[in-house]
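Dear colleagues,

I hope this message finds you well. In preparation for our joint manuscript, I am sending the ABC transporter ATP-binding protein (Advenella faeciporci) sequence together with its predicted structure, so that both groups work from identical material. I would be grateful if you could confirm receipt.
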Amino acid sequence: MDNKKILLKAENLCRIDPVNKVKLVKSASCMIHQGDRIVLSGSSGSGKSVFCRMLALLDQPDQGSITFNGQLVRQADIPHYRSAVAYIRQRPVLLRGTVQENLMFPFALHINRERRFNPEKIARFLAMIDKPDTFLQKNAADLSGGERQLVCLLRVLQLDPVILLLDEPTSALDMDMAMQVELLINKWMQLHDETRAYVWISHDEQQKKRVGQQVWHMNAGVLTTGVA
Ligand SMILES: Nc1ncnc2c1ncn2[C@@H]1O[C@H](COP(=O)(O)OP(=O)(O)OP(=O)(O)O)[C@@H](O)[C@H]1O
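The corresponding structure tokens are as follows:
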């Protein structure tokens, strides 16, 4: 692992509740290398989501810095950074329309103006999880919770993220669907020869063993990394 390239380095990240000024995350530092499969555990309310949203720069840190691919991330870099370090939430939000329309949506955004929807790429992902191409024509409103999460993941994966921050992506799913999500993420890691990485928040002990090669722990806003 030591000779793997460092993708992300966060130093002394703090997040303070703007209302009551309590520190939700206290001076968290971490490194994410290529190929890292990290589980983030910790009791409910300990600050795991706050930390991951901050790492994705969806919420601004009150202190600290993030270096990505050796470059300090500045304000102007944030839109690009967010597509490279992508946060996946527990309950996916889909738009009205078909699965394909949902997958095409990111390409209508200014930030992705140089990119084009790639049906072959999506077909490859669908094949990985044994979904037929007809899945693309399904109405998003008719999808199961698990299928919605798969579409949400495909929508992110097609944009070629480098790090996924997975915030309990399967906690609302049954075992079969959870395994499909795990399979898709695993295939994505293999597809890129373990040059990508993820941080996966989970409360499921069996899942933690399946998806985690290292464990980080959050306790009352204090992050500990490197716990075996
Ligand atoms: N936007 C916010 N403003 C103020 N407080 C917040 C905000 N988001 C979360 N918190 C608080 O921060 C603390 C940590 O919440 P967080 O969602 O990160 O916990 P968690 O470890 O992810 O829990 P769970 O495992 O239940 O999802 C909680 O006390 C929560 O109420």
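For the figure legend, we might mention the following. The pocket of adenosine-5'-triphosphate is lined by residues 17, 24, 42, 44-50, 218 (CB under 6 Å). The CA atoms of residues 12 and 45 lie 20 Å apart.

With kind regards,
E.M.
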